[in-house]
Each structure stands twice: as C-alpha cells, then as structure tokens.
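Human: Note token order:
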Amino acid sequence: MNKRFLIVLGWFTLAVMGVRFFSFAIEYNSDEELGNSFYEKFTELYGVFALRIPENLEFAGEQVPLHDPEVFERYDRELLSNTYFQSQGLLYFKRANRYFPIIEPILKANGIPDDFKYLALIESGFMNVVSPAGAAGFWQFMPVTAKQYNLEVNDFVDERYHLEKSTLAACKYLRSAYDKFGSWSLAAAAYNAGSGRIETSLSKQRVDNYYDLLLNNETSRYVFRILAVKQIMSNPREFGFHFRKKDLYEPIPVEYEMVDSRIDDLVQFAQERGISYKTLKFLNPWLRNTSLPVSPGKTYAIAIPKKGAKIHHDGIYDDFPADEREFPGSQNDSVPLDVIPMDNQELND
C-alpha cells in the first residue's frame, strides 16, 4: 500500500513540475523575453535617489552658506558619495559606537566642538592606517607634527596610534589653528593642508573664510566630507542605513597596568596575563616592537582586557550581555583618562 502511494505521489510531482515548466516556457519563449522581464523587475526594484539637502547647515556652530550654488553643489557631492558608499558607511557606524565614547569627552574637556569627532572618522575610518605620505593613526599625524605636539614616535613606541594621547594632541592643534584664524572651518582646513598654507591662501586671495577659498581638491572637499558624514550618521534611516544595536562594535572593557621598567619580551608579557600577543597589540597599537624600553622616570599604561572578556568579531568584548545603548553610545567608563600619563594642562599652553 505504501509503495503504491509513493509511486502515485512521484508521478503527480513530475506532472506538476512539467506544467510549471510548460507555463514558464509559454511566458518566456525566448532568452530575449526572459531578459526583458528581468530588467523590468530590476528597474522596478532598484533606484538611486537624489538626496534632501537641509535648509540650514552648521559646522561647529558656524553657518554653512548653502545659498551659494557652488557651496551647495560641493556639499551635495559629498552627501551623495558617502551615502552610496554603503559598505564604508556601515563600518563607520559600527566603529563609531566603540570609539566616539572615548573621543567625545576629550574634545569636550578641551573646548573643541563635538563635530571634530567626524574629522578623525573621515581621516582614518577609525583604522590604524598609514598614508602614502607617512601620516598614521586615527588622527593621521605626520611624525614631525606628532613630536611637536608631545607624542612619542620611535621604533618602540608610536603614540600616533594611542587614541587618547593622539586625540589630546589633535585638540591642541585645532585650538591653536582656531586661535589663529578665528574659525573652526578654517581650523579643520588647516588640519588637512597645514596652517601655513591656509594662511598664505587667505592672504593671496583676500578672503576671510573657508567657503570663499580656492584650495586643492582634497582640502576643498574636506569640511564638506565631515558635514556629509555627520548628517548621515545623525539620521541613519533617512539615508538607508539599517542596523540593530547588537550589530555595532561594543566599547572594549579594559584595565591598565602601569609599567615603569623595561619589558624584554612582550609576547611573554601577554601570555603571563592570559592573552595573546595579537590581543595585546590590538589593545595597544602604539607598541611597535616586541620589546619595550622604558627611560628612567617614564611610565606607560598598557591596556589589558578585563577579566571575563572574550574574543569576538573584530576585537575584545565583555562576556556579559551588552547594554542596550542608543547609537553612538554612552560615555565609556572602561577607558579612564586618569591613568593616561599626560598632562592635560599642556593643551592650554
């Protein structure tokens, strides 16, 4: 009985498949018709839209003159370019959730507008990249400039990769540029092109603001790129970015070990603390060698994952459930600035 039932079921299935194939063949009796239908569906479902430009736009509290057609079009270009570079944009959201909570309080404490956190993001994508010219770290300092702003740069330690210290150095640079030009937009441009070049351009062209300056292509796009990324990240769904809180990269829970004597083998140092050398370097990218010489009177704060942390996705995450925070996250208490051995008063010199 069961065998006969299976035979009947088999023939019935073949009959249904034959009817479906025959119907398909009638509907699309040529590759050309099938292709036409495919592209009709493609044009129905796929679209690239012009974007809404806000009536009022500010950078660091300064009005952007969108009534100027050339300024409007420069902003529109960056908004389109960054909106439709979706993979990069989504990674911006993910990484910002981890690093904005570290950068924001440092900017605030040193009187630098919050908008400058987006400057670091467009500079590096929150990756410890090195530019063809040799700029490095999240804030993309050149070696000479880094040393001018009290960052240590040598074969063993490169504090351009130290997020807290490089952010403090960026604050000092930006404050100095603002004091010189009286404009945050010009300070941002100076961060990209150098204060000397901006000062010379203002004098030669006899203007007093960023938006009237004729600059090289990169610097002329620079502030607009910051503005575009800020607009997108402030309104993710409006620009087609959809994610859950758990999709974002969590701040990394760490504690600090103060080191005032030489470490001959950082691999062994890591293993003695129950972590891999890779994890040690991930948390302390400013360590540039397998050993760490320490000068007399010098102290380094080395980040170690808190007990109970685990490797997950692209870094270290607490083993406990993540807080349901709204983007971009609350203040990150896991990176206390009071253990970073750098005198904040230097920024006000």
Notes: The chain is about 50% helix and 5% strand. Residues 252-321 form one domain. Residues 244 and 327 are 10 Å apart (CA to CA).
